[in-house]
Design goal:
With 247 residues, the chain is of the alpha/beta class. It has helices at 67-70, 76-84, 102-115, 155-158, 161-168, 184-195, 211-228, 236-241, and strands spanning 2-8, 11-12, 14-18, 28-33, 71-74, 90-94, 120-125, 141-144, 173-179, 202-206, 231-232. Residues 24-243 form the Radical SAM core domain.
Length: 247
């Protein structure tokens, strides 16, 4: 069984849209949003996947969510059938932290590829969890977003050296760093140097959950990207649909 986030109580967050961030930004994609996360970013825009009633980890909104309304369990084969019924042939597994459910995801992706061969499968991960051995060969692209100090997560949990080294050495992996202040770049530069991350596979993205904030930060972040040879990524879905579920 897979534990998914919901768009409304009882309705799993499985939907077709455009990829809003990173190396595949703008491409038609099908999304499956998994529930649960091992980290807790204070600015997280999907806190409904982890900050359930009783979870007191800090978040800017100070909201908690009823688990029974925001989680739903589905059989892997049923998830595969729902994904196969949508038109895009690019699947993005997101969260939360999807790799916490690696074995079940491997079964789902295997079932999906049996139904519709040729699916391109991406997984969005915070980079602190290893892919399950059965899932790893089924993934075409890792979108790795290590959490910097401004996220509020301790480095001992968020920046796991062996995981960062493994992703840096994997040609399927692209790195996306969330930037809130100019000073965040120093931490990115340190990680890129320490783990020999190829600059062409690094994207910098402004932190923000509304278009105004994203545009303000994009003005100076674009200059930093150009100066250091990194790619810039916006948050396209925020500009198009706002900070809403199922987009």
């Amino acid at each position: 069984m897979l534990t998914l986030a919901t768009t409304t109580p009882g309705e799993p967050e499985i939907f077709a849209s455009l990829q809003g961030e990173g190396a595949s930004m703008g491409r038609p994609s099908t999304f499956v949003r998994l529930s649960r996360c091992n980290l807790a970013c204070h600015w997280c825009d999907t806190a409904y996947t982890w900050r359930f009633t009783g979870d007191n980890r800090p978040h800017d909104d100070a909201l908690d969510f009823a688990r029974e309304d925001n989680q739903v369990k589905l059989d892997e084969a049923e998830v595969a059938r729902r994904v196969a019924a949508l038109s895009p042939d690019r699947l993005v597994l997101t969260g939360g932290e999807p790799l916490l459910q690696g074995a079940a995801l491997a079964r789902m992706v295997s079932a999906l590829k049996a139904l519709r061969p040729g699916f391109h499968v991406e997984i969005e991960t915070n980079g602190s969890v290893a892919p399950h051995p059965a899932l790893d060969p089924l993934i075409d692209q890792f979108n790795v977003s290590p959490k910097l100090a401004h996220s509020g997560n301790p480095a001992s949990l968020a920046l796991v050296p062996e995981r960062l080294a493994a992703y840096a050495a994997d040609p399927r992996a692209f790195f996306k760093f969330v930037i809130a202040e100019r000073s965040d770049l120093d931490e990115v530069l340190g990680l890129v140097a320490s783990y020999d991350i190829v600059p062409e596979r690094v994207f910098l993205m402004p932190e923000g959950r509304d278009s105004t904030t994203l545009r303000e930060r994009s003005r100076w972040l674009g200059d930093l990207c150009a100066a250091h040879g990194f790619a810039f990524t916006d948050r396209l879905h925020i500009h198009l649909w706002g900070d809403t579920r199922g987009t």
